[in-house]
Amino acid sequence: MRNAELVHYAFMAAAIVLEVAANVFVKYSDGFRRRTAGALGIFCILASFTSLSQAVRGIDLSVAYALWGGMGIVLTAFAGRALFRQRLGRVGWLGVCAIVSGVLLLELS
């Protein structure tokens, strides 16, 4: 991988991490009753979109969006389990596997 490609994938990784952080902060905000957590959630999603906009300069849009959205969902599910003791059932885990498979297929295409 060339340095330019690495930069775009670094922006993609940042966009994914920021999206997950935004989701966690929104949960912690308790319906935006906790304004600091809510504001951090809004900041993180804006930063995530900014990073995504830089990532798509070097990654195909279909691949970038699938990677961002899919991995954001998967990692948010893991964060929900770790931070909030939320559990997925069998069908939920099947959905996670389907998302990961779809992202991998798009990446390999």
From TrEMBL:
GO terms for cellular component: plasma membrane. Keywords: Cell inner membrane, Cell membrane, Membrane, Transmembrane, Transmembrane helix, Transport. Pfam families: Multi_Drug_Res. The chain crosses the membrane at residues 6-26, 38-56, 62-84, 91-108. It comes from the Bacteria. GO terms for biological process: glycine betaine transport; spermidine transmembrane transport; xenobiotic detoxification by transmembrane export across the plasma membrane. The keyword Transmembrane helix applies. Belongs to the drug/metabolite transporter (DMT) superfamily. Small multidrug resistance (SMR) (TC 2.A.7.1) family. This is Spermidine export protein MdtI.
